[in-house]
């Protein structure tokens, strides 16, 4: 697997890249993984986002970061749900990443 791209313009995108890489590679059951917005905010959110827009601001920032990450994994698929996101099983994407 390629090392983490260094051109992410935010710490959130870098964090999401590392988390997403782990989640996809660790999904041995090859089942969709559903995650709620609340769970994602607890993992990636910060107090400043809660004071400045709450969950709506977090969702916007997370979507932008995830878009950058998905550019690094062209075979990966993520569905956005009302309640959160669902990561779909993907073909082996280890080593398929590219610097963005």
List the helices and strands and how they pair.
Layout: H1 11-26, E1 33-36, H2 37-44, H3 47-51, H4 54-72, E2 77-80, E3 84-88
Antiparallel strand pairs: 1-3, 2-3
Helix pairs in contact: 1-4, 2-4
Structural class: alpha+beta
**Uncertain runs:** 95-100
| Rg for CA atoms | 13 Å
Strand content: 5-15%
| Helicity range | 40-55%
Strand order of the largest sheet: 1-3-2
What is the average per-residue confidence, as pLDDT, rounded to a whole number? Answer: 79
Number of strands: 3
User: Helical region count?
Assistant: 4
Shape: globular
Whole-Å distance between the termini?
Answer: 15 Å
What's the SSE pattern?
HEHHHEE
Largest sheet: 3 strands, antiparallel
In brief, what are we looking at here?
By secondary structure, the protein is of the alpha+beta class. The protein has helices at 11-26, 37-44, 47-51, 54-72; strands at 33-36, 77-80, 84-88.
Describe this structure as you would to a colleague.
With 100 residues, this protein is an alpha+beta fold. The protein has a domain at 33-91. The chain is built from 4 helices and 3 strands, in the order αβαααββ. It has helices at residues 11-26, 37-44, 47-51, 54-72, and strands spanning 33-36, 77-80, 84-88. It has a 3-stranded antiparallel sheet with strand order 1-3-2. Strand 2 and strand 3 (84-88) form a beta hairpin. The longest helix has 19 residues, at 54-72. The protein is globular. Mean pLDDT is 79; it is low at 95-100.
């Amino acid at each position: 697997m390629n090392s983490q791209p260094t051109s992410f313009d935010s710490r959130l995108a870098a964090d999401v890249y590392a988390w997403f890489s782990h989640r996809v590679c660790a999904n041995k059951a090859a089942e969709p993984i559903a995650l709620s917005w609340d769970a994602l905010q607890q993992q990636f959110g910060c107090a400043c986002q809660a004071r400045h827009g709450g969950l709506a601001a977090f969702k916007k920032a997370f979507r932008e970061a995830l878009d950058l990450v998905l550019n690094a994994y062209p075979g990966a698929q993520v569905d956005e749900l009302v309640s959160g996101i669902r990561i779909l099983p993907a073909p082996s994407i280890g080593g398929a990443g590219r610097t963005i």
